[in-house]
Amino acid sequence: MTLAPARDGPGGWGWVTRVLHWGLAGLILFQLGLGLRSAGFTPDLAERFALTQTHKSWGALILVLVLARIGWRLAAPGRPPLPGPAWQARAARASHAGLYALMLALPLSGWVAVSAAPIQDLLGIRNMAFGLVPLPDPWIPGDARVGKAAEAVHLWAAIGLAALVGLHVAAALRHHFVLRDGVLRGMIVGR
Questions:
Q1: Residue that wins the pLDDT comparison between 79 and 164
Q2: pLDDT of 189 over the 60 cut
Q3: Are 66 and 100 contacting, i.e. CB atoms less than 8 angstroms apart?
């Protein structure tokens, strides 16, 4: 039995790309749901605080995985562009760039928002990932103006990411059911 290739190739994506892709996809969908639940559907403050801590922890992990994904993409460039119209290649590049930008903007804006929030400073709450890993404050605690601005960026980035994820899924389904070019299969099973 041979191990699946780590690197991407013309026939599909290697196992490293696929593990990072599907791991991030699952975490992002989980985080979008958790963020919506904690922000909009949890009136109990203690429960909301616990959900926020969980959301913050998974967000920190997403940031690390996105940086790993970007590093992997730079170290091992992906498969060559698919044949097809130039607009399709431009749209794919633009949507992937948008996904990466938003996958970075969300955890960074969330980190700044919780760090700058006056309540964190007032209550002496430390930023921790999973209650184990201390996260340094990237902003001066207690700056409500910055905290509110970062919250707005976080909200709009979440909306933008949800929209782009929907577009990404629609494009993958188009490739699979309409174009029948093996793109989705390549991301699921590799080459």
A1: 164
A2: yes
A3: yes
For residue 2, the model assigns a pLDDT of 61
Host H or E run for residue 128: strand 128-129
Q: What is the Cα gyration radius of the chain?
A: 19
Task: Name the pLDDT band for 191 (thresholds 50, 70, 90).
Answer: low
Tokens for 190? 């590799």
Q: 129: which 2 tokens?
A: 């990932």
In the block, tokens 């290697």 appear at 14
Who contacts 65 (Cβ-Cβ below 8 Å, separation ≥6)? 20, 23, 24, 27
CB of 82 within 8 A of CB of 89?
A: yes
Torsion of CA 74, 76, 80, 86, to 10 degrees: -10
